[in-house]
Amino acid sequence: MTGSALPARAPYRRRLTALAAGCTLLGAALAGIAVPAQAASAQAVTHHAAARQADPVAAAQALAAPGVPGANDWSCKPSSAHPRPVVLVHGTFANGSVNWLTVAPALAADGYCVFALTYGAEADVPVLRAIAPVADSAQQLSTFVDGVLAATGTGQVDMVGHSQGGMMPRYYMKFDGGAAKVHTLVALAPSNHGTTLDGLTTLAQSFPGAVDVVGSLCPACTDQIVGSDALTRLNAGGDTLPGVTYWVIATRYDEVVTPYQSQFLSGPNVHNVLVQDLCPANIPDHVLMATDLVVLHEVRHALDPADVGSATCLANLTG
């Protein structure tokens, strides 16, 4: 079904309104929320490692994204219904405060302990995050997860990641000992097998000032280009690791990570989901995957498939 052939019914119009509101929230948050300026020097990395060993919770709190509704309550203890905390991992150019204004409060309302970090700063680049080398960001994710586990008294987390945030956790699991600490990874529009520089430039247009840093000041951008050393190393020997359950949720209308099929994974315990197979009338693009209500329902299903059914148009486009 093409965009011109979409049915002009009230639920679909309400969905478009919701998507537009979500986009407005993203822009407002980017402009108005102060983001921690994590240093990117070797000295800072050494200091951070020492702090992590001394107090893992404090080290994680230093990475926590401010102002995320429902997230980063460090006194939260998981319930028997939801025994693992959920860690939210944002995408390139964004931050945890921008990325999870829809997902975080919804999961918290479901009873999850929710935690969101901001990672990937580069020296002399203000505001924009998730632009550092993927390997460096994976180490920050490792610090954050260790702190979440220590604070909640649990042995594993579930993760929900968007864009780079859906791919980078795989790097953490493969190279930083994270596989034993992650039960389920839910990846929204992830750059699992890379994209083109044109795709990253398209993404950058959604974030003020990002176009200027794509070429020379964004190592993560280079790492996400098809055929990069980072992706070659990540995907060598197979897409998945034993013991982890993977969900990939993609949209046919992704203009950043293309073709959208490149987002999907191969291997055991993999669930590849196309939004339009759940609801053909739903057409989120790459950025709106983090605010889309059909996607949100499918995230809830992926985290709790025994109690939450798979998303449908009827369940998510009405009421």
Question: What is shown here, in short?
Answer:
Helices cover 39% and strands 10% of the residues. It is of the alpha/beta class and 319 residues long.
Write the layout of secondary structure elements.
Blueprint: H1 10-32, H2 42-54, H3 56-61, E1 86-89, H4 96-99, H5 103-109, E2 114-116, H6 134-152, E3 157-162, H7 164-175, E4 182-188, H8 197-204, H9 219-223, H10 229-235, E5 245-250, E6 270-274, H11 275-278, H12 293-303, H13 313-316
Parallel strand pairs: 1-2, 1-3, 3-4, 4-5, 5-6
Describe what you observe in this structure.
The protein has helices at 10-32, 42-54, 56-61, 96-99, 103-109, 134-152, 164-175, 197-204, 219-223, 229-235, 275-278, 293-303, 313-316; strands at 86-89, 114-116, 157-162, 182-188, 245-250, 270-274. It is globular and about 45 Å long. It is 39% helix and 10% strand. With 319 residues, it is an alpha/beta fold. It has a 6-stranded parallel β-sheet with strand order 2-1-3-4-5-6, sandwiched between helices. It has one domain: Rossmann fold, CATH 3.40.50.1820.
Q: What is the string of helix and strand elements? A: HHHEHHEHEHEHHHEEHHH
Overall mean pLDDT score?
A: 86
SS field, number of helical segments: 13
- Strand tally: 6
Q: What does the main sheet amount to?
A: 6 strands, parallel
> For the largest beta sheet, what order do the strands appear in spatially?
2-1-3-4-5-6
Low-confidence stretches are 1-34, 39-47
Instruction: Give the full name of the CATH homologous superfamily.
Output: Alpha/Beta hydrolase fold, catalytic domain
Label the overall shape.
globular
**Strand coverage percent:** 5-15%
Give the proportion of residues in helices.
Answer: 25-40%
Question: What number of structural domains do the residues give?
Answer: 1
What's the multimeric state?
single chain
**The CATH class:** Alpha Beta
Structural class: alpha/beta
CATH topology (level 3) name: Rossmann fold
Give Rg in angstroms: 18 Å
State the separation between the terminal residues, measured CA to CA.
24 Å
The CATH architecture: 3-Layer(aba) Sandwich
